[in-house]
Amino acid sequence: xxxxxxKMIHRALLLLSERKVDAVLGFQRGTIPMMSHPxxxxxxxxxxxxxxxxxCSTNLANYLPQRKERIAIFAKGCDSRxxxxxxxxxxxxREQLYIIGVPCQGMLDRRKVxxxxxxxxxxxxRETSQHLHLLGEGFMDSLERSSYLQENCAICTHRNAVIxxxxxxxxxxxxxxxxxxxxxxxxxxxxxxxRWSYFEELLAPCIRCYACRNACPMCFCPVCFVDESTPQxxxxxxxxxxTKTFHFLRAYHLAGRCTDCxxxxxxxxxxxxxxxxxxxxxxxxxxxxGYEAGLSLDQSPPLDTYSPDDPQEFIR
Length: 316
Hints:
Elements: H1 4-17, E1 23-28, E2 37-41, E3 71-75, H2 77-88, E4 97-101, H3 110-117, E5 122-127, E6 131-136, E7 139-144, H4 151-154, E8 166-167, H5 182-188, H6 192-203, H7 211-215, H8 240-253, H9 263-267, H10 275-289
């Protein structure tokens, strides 16, 4: 059976050789296990660098805004939803893109897997549909794949590309009956003072590196509000008030635009669960407007549009 990797190499080679695109955006195997990383290939002879495994988790849409060339992109479900939003927000044109949908069974959380190693050096990884085999000096551990999924992947309900020019393989079954907001409801049930304490503790480790912002496919403002100097909205230190303000305002900026791709949490060096902020607003947008981000080019995010029958319960 031809592997996904071989199919990717074949499609990239063909598209570049026939000059249908100027570049192909995909993944390359990292120099150490579990560290696959994005690669932009411009020449047919580079196509064999393409790779695919359960650690190709980065949202490739993050590399699209303001590009000028014609690009083929291998897109998971979350990647494709961000592509939709970027097209709607004029960050790239639909005709520039050749979108190759890659059905996704969920990406694995490298930090969870590393915790199982207990400091042992990992020399290789072998995957099956149900298991992950870790290979090292004098050991081979077998892990149940489903237990090590990224948290956003475990509750994902859009694993297939919502927009594409072709599908690399047949679509996978979408998950049904998933409770995406169990953790959000638990926080909502807290008293106001407990919620405030919860978020103070959640964000306390933040070192203001802005990795979450830089990794987000929808954070593409020419000048971020934290970098404004006239006026200066926030200080540059890790003052707790400034830190919370950054996270809260960034979350509000993503209301109706976040696809819960998990890029922010993957990038955070302090392992802060910043998705709990964006998921709360995702839940509110769904309940108020019945909208999920990036599912259609025919529907803009609710906060980008106006309708006379918009919910207005907040007006007194």
